[in-house]
Amino acid sequence: QREYRRIYYPPVHRRAVKKVLNLFLRAGRKATYHDYLTRFGPKHIFFNLAAGDEIANDDDLMLFIRQTETPFSVMYHSVSKGNVLPEDLGVNMREVIDRSIHSFFTSRMQLEEYRSQLGHSIPNAAILHHPISNVKPRPYPPLHAGPIRFCMIGSLVKRWKGQDMAIEVLSQPRWRNRDWILNLYGEGEDREELSTLCVRSG
Hints:
- Helices cover about 40% and strands about 15% of the residues.
- It is an alpha/beta fold.
- It is elongated.
- The strands form 2 sheets. A 4-stranded parallel beta sheet has the order 1-2-3-4.
- The chain has helices at about 1-10, 10-20, 60-65, 85-100, 110-120, 160, 165-170, 175, 190-200; strands at about 45-50, 70-75, 105, 125, 150-155, 180-185.
């Protein structure tokens, strides 16, 4: 996020002017680093989030959504199951939801997890499934064609990608008697733990 700020945020002197002006401007009129968005004159702003708390964790973005008159929607891509949110973060996330026109989620499970963690019904929620178009399913290979190969591509962070759950499932007796190979591709903080889990699971 800091790298993006270096690229897209205003230069240092403009940020300094903003901070000085905000000492004198009344609430609702304070300047934000994101005011340049409104200069494009968008009819709608679409925030595409990763962890889902990027706006709520950013004081400047919170100030922006409180003051902008441009309608906006938010797409939430990720959620950690059973996560306990700090109260101030939960308050901000609920405010983001209430101020947005739509709150988009990738699955019913993800939406229900957000509702549980936030204690919020999220009435403006909608689920957007990622469609696969112009792709025909390949026929299941014959049993003598060799092992079935599974592949998981993504950051090796089990709380986000769930590689440990896949390993647990494939370690069950019904899968041990089948001919398969699971390949994990990526880097992340859980690399060594997942490697150990693979060895321990046989």
